[in-house]
Amino acid sequence: FGMNWPGCAFPIFQPGALGNAKPESESLRTSWATALASRQAVLPPDVVVPAADPGVRLDKVCNELLRVVEIDGVGVRMIEGFPEQGPLRPGDWKQLLRKVRVAAIHGTAVSMDTARVQLCQSQVSRARECFPLIAWERGSLDAIVSNGTNVTFFAQVHAIKVTSVSTDAAIGEVTWRLNRHRLRILLRARAAGRGPLATLEEDVA
């Protein structure tokens, strides 16, 4: 993890794992400054310690997104491009997860505001190549984390946590997509000023 420069390896740990986050962060910055002094031409000037965010497990986020889609009617799902029945397609998951951002990998806090997460449907796991020393869970899907340029790696879905804010954004987006058609019907009925739908509030959509 973090092998961005040939011949260099940087230990990354979860802030607070050793008892006190502040001294650990200072120790990390001191170590980074020491490395910087000997490799000024190749290392960035500072190290960023990500803010603490407990995050939400990606597999739980996927289950919640799937639940939101499945509780809706078939007609609405088809209007939004989701399959009438059967599992969601890779392209569907790409859209559902487009707002989520990674908070941690295998318990290590990270800051990756530009990287997106996509599920991998391949039966061959590439997560073992990226994390060879971490136990591999049979039957767990892989996900790819990438920003299309300098960040690309694979990890098993259960090992990824995403930020709480981005989770709420993803669930809110799919909820809005599925509810907006009903809201339009209500607004038209209220504009017409007649019929039983005209008496309903907007939040019933």
Question: How does this model look, in words?
Answer:
The protein has six helices and seven strands. The protein is α+β, with helices and mostly antiparallel strands and 205 residues long. The strands form two sheets. It has a four-stranded antiparallel sheet. Strand 5 (142-146) and strand 6 form a beta hairpin. It is elongated. It starts with 20 loop residues before the first helix and ends in a 13-residue tail after the last helix. Mean pLDDT is 76; it is low at 1-6.
Which labels suit this protein?
single chain; 205 residues; alpha+beta; 4-stranded antiparallel sheet; 3-stranded antiparallel sheet; 7 strands; elongated; disordered N terminus
Q: Secondary-structure element sequence?
A: HEHHHEEEHEEEH
**What is the beta-strand fraction?**
5-15%
Average pLDDT taken over every residue: 76
> What is the β-strand count?
7
Task: List unreliable stretches of 5+ residues.
Answer: 1-6
Q: Give the helix level as a range of percent.
A: 25-40%
Question: Total number of helical segments?
Answer: 6
- Calculate the terminal CA-CA distance, rounded to whole Å: 45 Å
Largest sheet: 4 strands, antiparallel
How many whole angstroms does the radius of gyration measure?
22 Å
Which class of secondary structure composition applies to the elements?
alpha+beta
Strand order of the largest sheet: 1-7-2-3
Q: What shape does the CA trace take? A: elongated
How is the secondary structure organized here?
Blueprint: H1 21-38, E1 56-57, H2 58-70, H3 74-79, H4 90-96, E2 102-105, E3 108-109, E4 116-120, H5 127-130, E5 142-146, E6 152-156, E7 160-162, H6 164-192
Antiparallel strand pairs: 1-7, 2-3, 2-7, 4-5, 5-6
